[in-house]
Amino acid sequence: MVAAAASATVATGAALTAVLAGAGTSAADPVSLTLNYSCPFPLIGTQTLQIVISADIPTTVNVGEPTPAFTVTAVATVPPTATQGLTLVGAATVEGSAQASSTVTAPEATIPVTVPATIPVTPVPASGSFDTVATGDAPSLTFTQAGQATITVGDILLTLHPKRADGTDTGLGVFDSQCTQVAGQNNTLATITINGGTTTEPTTTEPTTTEPTTTEPTTTEPTTTEPTTTEPTTTEPTTTEPSTTEPTTTTSNPPTGIDYSYALEGDSVVKKLNATVPLSGGIDANLDLATGNFTADLSLEPSKLKATLFHFIPITAKVAFEQEGKTTGTLAGGVLNSTSHTTIKLPSVKVFGFPISKSPKCQSSEPSEINLTSGPGFDPLAGGDLSGTYAIAPLENCGPLTGLISPLATGPGNTIDVTLSPKES
User: Fold this and answer.
1) Which one of 203, 223, 249 terminates a domain?
2) Rounded Cα–Cα distance for residues 146 and 20 (Å)
3) What is the DSSP letter of 91?
């Protein structure tokens, strides 16, 4: 996603710089520029993107001659981490727009330019990296003074829109990413020599013609052209320097893991008592995009159980949950699976309102393994529903009536259904 956007961005930047370059009547030379950008994105964090800009830009143009339009191409390779992030939210395609800033420094002025570009619909593969290709046409430009013009590429603003296969939005929606060019790079796309024009150069009797035309801007240009014609020879070699940055742009900057925080609401049904226990709490997870594995800290608030034994004996109990270690699991193919180990505590048990156990150590003798699974299309940004079953081990440390209390809850087939909702940051 990030890279897809970046690719279009690059195309935009190249296009806008090319806009001011122009082709003139001279032969155009192919140029190529490779730049690294630091781009912040939701879900996958900040990524370092490599963007390659290529175009046919003239080495020389003439004053007063409009330049024809030409095509600029930008190619960005989407890293596997970004692909994983897109597939996690169910994105089948990514599209959007880019605004790339460039600067044209010419004898008459230094011109900042921002040119919008469209990022075409690009399919997202199931895994691995993929390339995005963006192209743009540069409009005509006319220079008014002789000398040289330098085209440099700047930062990029991306607007990205990942979509599902049916065309609907993912949990990412539409978002912006301000991509900053990594410092220390040669960002010169091209340097162009601007000649004074073939019709004015033969004028060798300048002293006789300058007096009546001293105020004419066009007659003074030939005198300034000749001393500046040698300047491009010192700057033209800079168009090949971007190749030195290529070895440092072959890798992205994947995060070690992405953090998610959810509020949890739901309930659990204890089979033996046919009693529903309300559940609330939260879970803080860290997801490794490269593998789809995650670890999490689960916390459940104390709750209460109400049941009727033999259809006429009311039983109430306080219920607490103690997590044993981390919750672990996977998010793959749009399905989330998690495993938690939880010790169930009953610090208070009452029958007919009279306490039969008040031991804070009354608990299951072994942690319950709780396995939860989502339905298809689980979106880590939007949350979703999870369900599963678990067993309760025999209770211990519940006082003299442990033997009576334990059978009331012990056994398999207990169910749990919860909904995860993203916490507001």
Assistant:
1) 249
2) 15
3) -
Last residue of a domain, one of 223, 249, 275: 249
Range of the domain at 111: 2-249
**75 and 206 share one domain:** yes
Q: Are 371 and 387 in contact (CB under 8 A)?
A: no
Q: Are 369 and 398 found together in one domain?
A: yes
pLDDT in tens, 168-214: 988 888 989 898 999 999 999 889 899 986 433 333 334 333 343 33
Q: Which of 27-31, 77-81, 240-244, 318-322 has the lowest mean pLDDT?
A: 240-244
Q: Please state, in angstroms and rounded to a whole number, the distance separating the CA atoms of residues 312 and 297.
A: 40
pLDDT at 58: 82
Could you count the other beta carbons within 10 Å of the beta carbon of residue 184? 8
Taking 3-state DSSP, the helix, strand and coil percentages for the chain, each rounded to the nearest 5, stand at: 15, 55, 30
Residue whose pair of structure tokens reads 């030195």 in the numeric block:
244
DSSP output for 242-297: GGGGGGGGS-----S-EEEEEEEEEEEEETTTTEEEEEEEEEEEEE-TTT-EEEEE
**Residue 291 CB contacts under 8 Å (≥ 6 apart), including other chains:** none
- Number of domains composing the chain: 2
Give backbone dihedrals phi and psi of 260, rounded to 5 degrees, phi first. -130, 140
Residues contacting 171, CB < 8 A, separation 6+: 89, 379, 380, 381, 382
Distance, CA of 82 to CA of 275 (rounded, Å):
45
pLDDT number for residue 377: 81
* The pLDDT value given to residue 374: 94
